[in-house]
Write a structure and sequence with these properties.
Layout lengths: L1 H10 L4 H4 L14 E2 L9 E3 L7 E4 L2 E6 L8 E9 L2 E11 L1 E6 L3 E6 L8 E9 L2 E6 L2 E3 L11 E7 L3 E12 L4 H5 L17 H14 L1 E2 L10 E3 L2 E6 L2 E6 L8 E5 L7 E8 L6 E9 L4 E8 L10 E8 L2 E6 L2 E6 L7 E5 L5 E10 L2
Antiparallel strand pairs: 1-13, 2-5, 3-4, 4-13, 5-12, 6-9, 6-13, 7-8, 7-12, 9-10, 10-11, 14-26, 15-18, 16-17, 17-26, 18-25, 19-22, 19-26, 20-21, 20-25, 22-23, 23-24
Length: 365
């Protein structure tokens, strides 16, 4: 089992207790594992749009019922939090069909009646460690060495196969060294195209954020997104810190777009916070959208090692004359303005899954 030894070399000390034996053993959850399902409701979880009727909570269990016969249809419920290297444990009672554990673009592992006995509780243990995924069903190791996996930070999704019924309980997670290696590799100097010498100081940046937030016009969607326009996957959720917009919920193959504002918006200052942008994903901020000409001034933000997907990142954008100046992570990016009048928008490119909040505009008409 040479690949297991290599996996241990990549992982470090945590997995040594798991893989030090002659063959891989399933780790046993202890007090260091965190429960991510309270057995009462879906706090901390989100059901994908259109799948609301497929999942319910009763008797301390997460119950899923997907009666569709469409082979390509999967009903998903996902964690609000994103995870990097981690271990997952849950108990599964599969009545029919199957379920899948997924991190979009990084891995999908199916548990069907071929791997799981029907109509009895079994314990699933699942590890995502870099490019390796290990899984056990009641301590029976599943050989996944022929499948391709990638490292990455993303929400965990539990998906129901077609014509499937399942119950799940005792969902627990242990996070391992999340983001440490990426933070240690954070570049000390920005790229040449970005001009840090022209950036606002941290104090000025925070003052400007506060000024726009206090005196600008908030862009907070109502429950029915009245006054907003959109295509693709998006939703609104109320949290203790205010309203959060989720864009690109399915992380699928189509882009998702939201538009807000007025046709008369011209020069102004824009503020938005985002999180959840993982490496390989792209969020596009659109300004002065000209719907007739299908043009806009675009600012692309790409996920990389400098971004922590678990934390909110603020962007402040100033539009004046023929220039756009964006202040972001202590740097400044200048782009030429392509349009001069119109609303603003947010575009999640295919495969991108991001959250937005605290959107303010201080504009001139």
């Amino acid at each position: 089992m040479r690949w297991v030894v290599y996996c241990l070399g990549v992982s470090g000390l945590f997995w040594s207790a798991v893989l030090a034996q002659e063959g891989p053993r399933a780790p046993v959850p202890d007090a260091s594992w965190n429960s991510i399902f309270n057995g009462k409701n879906l706090n901390g979880w989100s059901v994908q749009p259109g799948d609301e009727g497929l999942w319910s909570v009763s008797g301390g269990e997460l119950a899923g019922n997907n009666p569709t016969r469409n082979f390509n249809y999967f009903g998903g419920v996902r964690t609000d939090r994103q995870y990097g290297d981690m271990a997952l444990s849950f108990e599964l009672f599969l009545e029919s069909g199957g379920i899948a554990v997924r991190k979009w673009r990084f891995f999908t592992v199916h548990f069907t009646e071929n791997e799981v006995p029907l109509n009895q509780w079994v314990r699933i243990v699942f590890i995502h460690d870099g490019k390796f995924v290990l899984a056990w069903v009641d301590n029976k190791f599943m050989d996944l060495t022929q499948q391709a996996f990638e490292p990455g930070v993303k929400n965990l999704t539990l998906m129901l196969n077609k014509e499937s019924r399942a119950r799940i309980r005792n969902i627990r997670v242990k996070v391992v060294g999340e983001k440490k290696s990426e933070k240690s590799e954070r570049p000390e100097k920005p790229e040449k195209a970005q001009k840090p010498s022209e950036s606002r100081s941290a104090v000025d940046f925070e003052k400007e954020l506060q000024r726009v937030s206090q005196h600008g016009q908030p862009q907070t969607p109502s429950k029915d997104f009245s006054g907003w326009k959109g295509n693709g996957d998006y939703s609104r959720v109320e949290t203790s810190e205010g309203v959060v917009i989720r864009l690109g919920l399915s992380g699928g193959e189509k882009a998702s777009l939201l538009q807000t504002g007025e046709d008369g918006w011209t020069d102004g200052t824009y503020v938005v916070q985002f999180r959840g942008l993982a490496p390989g994903e792209t969020l596009v901020l659109l300004f002065n959208m000209d719907m007739a000409k299908r043009k806009a001034t675009e600012l692309q933000i790409k996920g990389d090692a400098r971004l922590d997907p678990d934390n909110w990142t603020s962007v402040l954008v100033e539009l004046k004359g023929d220039e756009v100046v964006a202040h972001f992570m202590g740097q400044v990016v200048r782009i030429r303005r392509q349009t001069t009048r119109g609303p603003m928008g947010f575009l999640a490119l295919p495969g991108t899954d991001v959250e937005l909040r605290k959107i303010y505009v201080r504009h001139s008409r």
